[in-house]
Every structure is written in C-alpha cells, then in structure tokens.
Amino acid sequence: MTKSKRLATNIMGFRFELLLEAPELSKHPSLIGARYRPSRILISYPTSTNWVTLSWEDDKKHEEMTVQWLQRR
Q: How far is CA 46 from CA 40, 50, 58, 63, 68, in A?
C-alpha cells in the first residue's frame, strides 16, 4: 500500500485511517487488530457521550465501537 492510498488523522487522541484497499499487515503491523467499517463510534465521558454514525452500502452487519474515557484517580 502506498501513502497515496491512505488518509490518517487524530481526533481526540485516537488515530483514524481511511484505507482505499486492504492493507498488507506484514508491512503495516500497527493495523493488526484494527476495526473494519464500524457502524458507530461512541466516546463516553463521565458527563456526556459523543458519537459518529457511519453508513456502508454493502448489506453487511457492522459493529459499534465504544471508547470510555477514564479519569486517573
């Protein structure tokens, strides 16, 4: 995969990558365990919950991804 086929950004400390083709995991081990096409990304804080809902036109079931913000004690 060349750099021209992926877009990466950080949102609230989380890395998001848009890939236009399946990655070669042997060349990109940081993507092992990555989530593929989530239906929704929820970020839960003690006082609020924010989310992004995504839609995919492939007639497949997609799972939600939930992140819970924990404060240090």
A: 19, 11, 35, 23, 9
